[in-house]
Amino acid sequence: MLHELRRRGFSSHVFEAGTDVGGTWYWNRYPGARCDVESLFYSYSFSPELTKEWVWTERYPAQPEILAYLQHVADRFDLRRDISFSTRVDSVVFDEASHRWQVSTETGRTVTARYVVTAVGCLSSAQTPAIPGLDSFRGATYHTGQWPKEGVDFTGKRVGLIGTGSSGIQATPVIAEQADRLTVFQRTPSFSVPAHNHPLSPETIAAAMERYDEVREQMRHSPGGTLIDAADKSLLEMPDDERRELLERAWKTGGAGFVGTFPDALVNREANKVVADFVADKIRSIVNDPAVADRLIPSTYPIGAKRICVDTDYYATFNRDNVELVDVGAEPIQEIVPQGLKVGDRIHEVDAIVFATGYDAMTGSLARLGIVGVDGVRLTDKWAAGPETYLGVATSGFPNLFMLTGPGSPSVLSNMVVSIEQHVDWVADFLDRLRSEGAVRVEADRVAETEWVAHVNEVANHTLYPQANSWYLGANVPGKPRIFMPYAGGVGAYRERCDAEASRDYPGFHRK
Ligand code: N01
Hints:
Layout: H1 2-7, E1 14-15, H2 24-27, H3 48-53, H4 63-76, E2 83-84, E3 89-95, E4 100-105, E5 110-113, E6 116-118, E7 140-143, E8 158-162, H5 166-178, E9 181-186, E10 192-194, H6 202-210, H7 212-220, H8 240-253, H9 269-286, H10 290-296, E11 309-311, H11 314-317, E12 323-327, E13 335-337, E14 340-343, E15 346-349, E16 352-355, H12 364-367, E17 371-372, H13 379-382, E18 401-403, H14 416-436, E19 442-444, H15 446-461, H16 491-503, E20 509-511
Parallel strand pairs: 1-2, 3-17, 6-18, 7-16, 8-9, 8-16, 9-12, 10-11
Antiparallel strand pairs: 3-4, 4-5, 13-14, 14-15, 19-20
Helix pairs in contact: 9-10, 14-16
Bound molecules: 3-acetylpyridine adenine dinucleotide (N01).
3-acetylpyridine adenine dinucleotide binds next to helix 5.
């Protein structure tokens, strides 16, 4: 966004809480942290030179490599001179008289700006559950999303890991290798698909580069911002051998696109069950102890309704002698005591606790900005019953404010880089338009917003997503309203909707 604004001659400044660029890939340094979108396409496409000069080493990039890439981007485009690091914004207040925002930081600085663009991420407000006795624990505690920069050495340590979503599933095999003992506390099992990660050969990269522009363009118009080799008919219409072959092929391909291979798996419970049963069988075939395998198999929600996880050796890790799975679904962690975690009558003694317990997703970080709009209304009050946006980029009553990958946009249901680039271009085009007509104030129309929110809900209700207690619905945060937050209509359809808004000269916004 900064690069694009600069390119178009806007004066702009970025505030960043971290000491460096990287966002998710700056904070998430936990063992095993890796992206589950392929590196060649989890990278920017706005600069052909950048694409050519950066050489990815693996199919799925590990956190250090993505962070190095983002640092390279910052250096290459000389971005740091307009970024204030170690600077957390704690208040963003609209001034009616000047139609400008007052942005204040924890470091005591206040600036005013015509426009504010939030780029705070969807999964950046780490959630540590309020388990009684946490302060009494005598060992170290870590959250995967706030991992120490210097790293953590678990050699010789007994580690307790809470949470079995994407982060916990990536961290488990790596911590198990290093630690003396690992106890995994699982409340709800996740479905996980093998990554089949591998180094990228120069030939693979060269072949990808030959069709790069064409493939990127297809991604921009695809459902999830990635290309998936989806079947052309339902699993339910296939003879048994064809169905089996397709499932096996998808499992061998691996990765987050697994469920997307089956066109009706996310809308038809019966088709979904075929896929879920297949994965359950795979888990049983990997895990030696049938009782442990059973505990690892999800049974309470459709596959894909919670974010599918992608792993390297997750299930096999439970065959190790130094790893124990504790089911805290039926019987929660009662208390944390100085020497460990108490579940039922048993105290699990540990030297360190890893919280892989997720985030106050999509709205958490926006809430923490302290945004106050027209008539002194707080964004948190306006969104008390759930986020309301127009196209996921703006919200009525908060003029001159744009959100990148905000609630109501495809964001977390897509390849984030594709969605970020689309929002950046769309917002920059709109700002250009506003500048050219001399506007000082732009605000989403309340009726357009209400219709968009209804559409977001309607689309979600046609899918199986609402049938899981996921962070997509805010179900992981006590007291958070149960509203499906991302837009499930697909990146391509969403782009068309945004483009139509622009080509019709932004009918869903008021300007003056
Ligand atoms: O967080 P999560 P995450 N007691 O919310 C459990 C992206 N991501 O950091 O399901 C016990 O998914 C909770 O249990 P339950 C990706 O989009 C991507 O793992 O609520 N357990 C759950 O098991 C992902 O979806 C990548 O019952 C407790 C876990 O903690 C998103 O980030 C890698 C608990 C939280 O899982 C978030 O993933 C990592 C308690 N009191 C993340 N409270 C890749 O690209 C919570 N839990 C690969």
